[in-house]
């Protein structure tokens, strides 16, 4: 169930034209926002994912704007429910993410905000590909239980400081994240949350993800010359 917007924040439905399709998203803008986080969902999830909405609300409460957008159209989601192919089409997801990123840089109420990505599952791979394509725009990336390995060769071109968060009981994904971490040439960190599984459903696990993400984004998306220079120098 959707939660109301954080106090002092405005939330509205937006439509983003990317190529031949129009994507729908929920844009939340706290008063005096200090940055904006674009969520990249994966593995059949949508902008209504209760886990991502929970994280987004906690980021809003910390003064960060968020955009949760469906990277697939309703028709594509219906196909993906049957085939599970589109959620692994990292090129398509990254293209949609880049288009949405460019849209945010053109809007009057978001173009002044430094931008970060929060990627979950296969969406994390798409977020890193998009970050490699927009190195001067994307200031930070956070992956939750993600598949950063799916970014492939793009990993070596990522310049945004990248935080990888994995559950301690998600052994296969830990190994994939460790392999991706070794390829990243930017500022990077891997955090393993003890006792957490892939979906971070354990009590307090998702709150810990949100806390780590918030700290990372606050550090690298702060609208100061020092942070902007530091983020682009890596």
Keywords:
Rossmann fold; 7 helices; alpha/beta; 38% helix; 234 residues; globular
Portion in helices: 25-40%
Tally of DSSP helical segments: 7
Q: What's the oligomerization state?
A: single chain
Whole-number average pLDDT? 89
What shape does the CA trace take? globular
Class computed from helices, strands and strand pairing: alpha/beta
Write down the CATH class: Alpha Beta
The succession of helices and strands, N to C, reads EEEHEHHEHEEHEHH
Low-confidence stretches: 225-234
Count of folded domains: 1
Strand order of the largest sheet: 1-2-4-3-5-6-7-8
Q: Compute the separation of the termini in Å.
A: 39 Å
CATH architecture: 3-Layer(aba) Sandwich
Number of strands: 8
Q: What Rg, in angstroms, do the CA atoms define?
A: 16 Å
User: Would you identify the CATH H-level superfamily?
Assistant: Alpha/Beta hydrolase fold, catalytic domain
Show the helix and strand layout.
Elements: E1 9-18, E2 21-30, E3 36-40, H1 50-61, E4 65-69, H2 74-83, H3 90-106, E5 115-120, H4 122-133, E6 138-144, E7 162-167, H5 171-183, E8 188-193, H6 205-221, H7 225-233
Give a nutshell description of this structure:
The protein has 234 residues and is an alpha/beta fold. It has 7 helices and 8 strands; from the N terminus they run βββαβααβαββαβαα. The chain has helices spanning 50-61, 74-83, 90-106, 122-133, 171-183, 205-221, 225-233, and strands spanning 9-18, 21-30, 36-40, 65-69, 115-120, 138-144, 162-167, 188-193.
């Amino acid at each position: 169930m959707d939660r109301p917007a954080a106090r002092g924040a405005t939330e509205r439905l937006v439509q983003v034209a990317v190529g031949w399709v129009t994507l729908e998203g929920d844009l939340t803008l706290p008063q005096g926002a200090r940055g904006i986080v674009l969520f990249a969902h994966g593995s059949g999830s949508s902008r209504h994912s209760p886990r991502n909405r929970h994280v987004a609300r906690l980021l809003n409460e910390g003064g960060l704007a968020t955009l949760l957008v469906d990277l697939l159209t309703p028709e594509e989601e219906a196909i993906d429910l049957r085939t599970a192919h589109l959620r692994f089409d990292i090129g398509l997801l990254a293209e949609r993410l880049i288009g949405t990123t460019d849209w945010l840089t053109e809007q009057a109420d978001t173009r002044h905000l430094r931008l970060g990505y929060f990627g979950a599952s296969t969406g994390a791979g798409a977020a890193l590909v998009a970050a490699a394509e927009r190195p001067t725009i994307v200031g930070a990336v956070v992956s939750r239980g993600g598949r950063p390995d799916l970014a492939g060769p793009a990993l070596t071109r990522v310049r945004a400081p990248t935080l990888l968060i994995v559950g301690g009981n998600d052994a296969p994904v830990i190994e994939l994240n460790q392999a991706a971490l070794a390829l990243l040439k930017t500022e990077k960190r891997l955090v393993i949350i003890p006792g957490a599984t892939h979906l971070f459903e354990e009590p307090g696990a998702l709150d810990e993800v949100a806390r780590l993400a918030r700290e990372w984004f606050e550090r690298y998306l702060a609208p100061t010359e020092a942070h902007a220079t530091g983020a682009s120098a890596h």
